[in-house]
Amino acid sequence: MKKIVGTVITVCIVLLLIALCIVFRGADFDENQISTLKILLIICGCSAAYCFVTGEITKNYSQMDKLWSILPIAYLWIIAAKGGFDLRLSVYALIVTAWGIRLTVNFARKGAYRLKFWEGNEDYRWSIVKNHPVFSKGFAWTLFDLFFISIYQNALVLAICLPAVACMGSANSFGTIDIIAAGLAVTFFVLETVSDEYQWQFHQQKKKLLEKGKTLDEIPLPYSLGFNTLGPWSRMRHPNYLGEQGIWLSLYIFAIGSGAAQNGIFNISFIGPLLLILLFIGSSTLGEKISSQKYPQYKSYINQVCKYIPIKKFDPCNQ
């Protein structure tokens, strides 16, 4: 496990650093794009420093989780402003703003934010990860906090916004490809919104039932399962993750519409959405491991329902 975790993190960091080195060397970028990248990098560096110092002092390691949905909004409007607020960048920024507001509200209702920004509920997964034998020595966790939670995740959030930088200064007018990009992004946005709402309502109802003094086995299906199988969750194990990845992959298509993609489809900024997918591979694997340990029927759910493809509906009676 230790080797696997170390290898995955190392590969991700190396790929991201290589990509950022190529990008910030200014390959095919004009002076305005390079100037914009420098501004974004300064913000990213300050955010990484804040997350690390604050996390270590408060022992609340969800500092970057709180900024995850806020930073892209700032990045995109800076990019849009530096790009003269052309239609493509403005639409791009509006979609990211809607995405960020929705994600922030969803995280806020889980108790993540406080007036004192460094306080609030920490994502439960960090305490589980921290208790792993790999991090039995405090110094190991400090390094993980510095390089993965603070530096890598901040760099990743910047990286997923880089396709917008690639769109700056485009001579191509807003066209069919851009409409497709916006349409797909909105579709995935709706999927993520609906999925998170089903998730929230399920756990709120389960909580109310358990507060009546009953055990999990005593409450009715589907709440007695412990995990959500309602709405999109009945056919996909991670519809919210599919929506999240789909949004950023769709937004990359704007770079294709702008003409920034070489050979019609590829631009170095694609590394951001790609690394986001790798992050969700690890996140979904961790989440499923935790759920399998907590809920007896979760393994049956894994066997019946695909991660992202809605082929078959979950049947709790089919064991």
Subunit arrangement of the protein = single chain
Number of domains: 1
What count of helical segments does DSSP give? 12
Low-confidence stretches: none
Largest sheet: none
Radius of gyration from the alpha-carbon trace, in angstroms: 21 Å
Instruction: Give the structural class.
Output: mainly alpha
Task: Determine the mean pLDDT.
Answer: 90
Distance between the termini: 29 Å
Helix content range: 55-70%
Q: What percent of residues are in strands?
A: under 5%
Written as H for each helix and E for each strand, in order along the chain, the element string is: HHHHHHHHHHHH
Question: Can you count the beta strands?
Answer: 0
Give the overall shape.
globular
Topology diagram in text:
Layout: H1 2-24, H2 31-58, H3 63-67, H4 71-82, H5 87-108, H6 124-130, H7 138-160, H8 162-167, H9 176-210, H10 239-258, H11 271-294, H12 298-304
Helix pairs in contact: 1-7, 1-11, 2-4, 2-7, 4-5, 5-9, 7-11, 9-10, 10-11
Describe this structure in words.
- The protein is built from 12 helices and no strands.
- The chain has 319 residues and is mainly α.
- α1 packs antiparallel against α11 (271-294), α2 runs antiparallel to α4 (71-82) and α7 (138-160) crosses α11 (271-294).
- The protein has one domain (2-304).
- It is globular.
- The longest helix is centred in the middle third of the chain and has 35 residues, at 176-210.
- It has helices at residues 2-24, 31-58, 63-67, 71-82, 87-108, 124-130, 138-160, 162-167, 176-210, 239-258, 271-294, 298-304.
